[in-house]
Amino acid sequence: METIYLDYAPLGVQFFYIYKHLQHPELDGYIEPFTLEERLMHIQEAKRTLGSALPWIADSMSNDLKHALGNSPNSEFVIDPEGRVVIRRAWSRPEQLRQDLEGLVGAVDHPTLISDLNLKMEPPPRVAASGVVPRVKIPGVMMAMKVTPEKSDIPFYAKLRAEVTRDFLGTGKGILYLGFNVDPIYRVHWNNLVDPLKFEIKTPQGMTVSPTQGEGPELEVASDIDPREFLLDVTRLEGVTEPLQLAVRYYACNDDEGWCIPVTQNYLIHLESYRDGGIAPRRSWSVWNDR
Amino acid sequence: MRVLYRFRTVVVMTCLTLMASLSVAAQKTFDMQQVLEQWNSDQNSESPPSPEDVFESLDADRNGTLTSGEIPANGQWFLERFDRDGGGSISWEEIVLEIKDAISRQAGRDDTTNRQTGPRAAFERSAPKVGAVLPEISGYQVDGQEFNLRSLKGNYSVLVFGCLT
Fold this sequence. Notes:
The complex is a heterodimer.
Chain A (H helix, E strand, L loop, with lengths): L1 H7 L5 E6 L16 H15 L5 E3 L5 H5 L7 E4 L5 E5 L4 H11 L37 E8 L8 E8 L2 H4 L1 E10 L6 E3 L6 E5 L4 E4 L2 E3 L7 E2 L3 E9 L7 E11 L4 E15 L18
Parallel strand pairs in A: 1-2
Antiparallel strand pairs in A: 3-4, 5-6, 5-15, 6-7, 7-13, 8-12, 8-14, 9-11, 9-14, 10-13, 14-15
Chain B lengths: L1 H23 L7 H13 L6 H8 L6 E3 L8 H7 L6 E3 H15 L11 H9 L11 E4 L4 E3 L8 E6 L3
Antiparallel strand pairs in B: 1-2, 3-4
Helix pairs in contact in B: 1-2, 1-3, 1-5
């Protein structure tokens, strides 16, 4: 795509990557942003790590552009000068796109090759140790739940991801997964020299969660960036739609900026499938049949 | 039913074995005989690899998914076949679910046999058709300014969806 951009942008073709929700959250440590500002930070991170020169557009936080344009994670469109769709495909095909543009705009004399590019790709950030906290063993295929962060004066340096076993929506019984991940765009890590992360859940009438409290492991290493994961039993009577309330307390540290602070933040966990939750590697499954 | 399941398991195992062998000799073309010989050889060994073992052996970065870079060029069809969510990679769960659906279809139990499902089918149904004007929906430029799809006029434009991961 970068080579096509270099060849056809000078001929007047406009190119835009549209940045929507993460398709594979937690891959390389990246987690779904909660705010538009964070999504814009993701774009800067994408340009840094991928070496991309294309202009980027951020989708809204409700992913309106993606939903309106067919809801495929890597779709591709060519729009004519009158604003009408002339090419559409569910999955981007750069080789085919080049042929399309050759037909619409004309061939270039010396197409840019990937080997001509001097892409300066950077690795994802890694500010502290990883691999020191064993991952939980997942009991089955999980589905992402919608999580709503409540108002906070400081960023969500650590973010909650909630999932539930697929049978929960039908049976009212299942396993709830909670994962707290430090957000790499803030270059923060856990502080293991103080109390570990703690959470507490309040359930609405007609729903049970066990246990309702939990805390992360105490570790010998002073800091790390591993997720803090928990598996809880959850039951819900039919008709109960109110969300769970979760409060979490943790310490976040940023060595570059020289701070280490306690953070308390709150969430609502809606026990309904979340179509923009993506697929966490080796754990969750998207609910595309609901789309 | 059990026979069908075993058949499908063999198919998947064969596909994975094929890709594993292609990883070693990426220039070779599809050779079913070679695949079957490899499969039989593996089954006759003292500890034949499970499909999960083969999957993990291909998963070079150990992230739980096989991406284009981990699948040799001759096996890219495998990515398209099993990439149910259109995410550009395949997880073990996707393979298992695809097999289950295939079994259901063969057993005639699936009432969705004639129903196109999955993100690609949803895209065909719901994405703006060729000739359609783009909807009046906005995103944001990197400086936070609003960007409306209707502003794409005057030149040809290319839109591609993506994200960091």
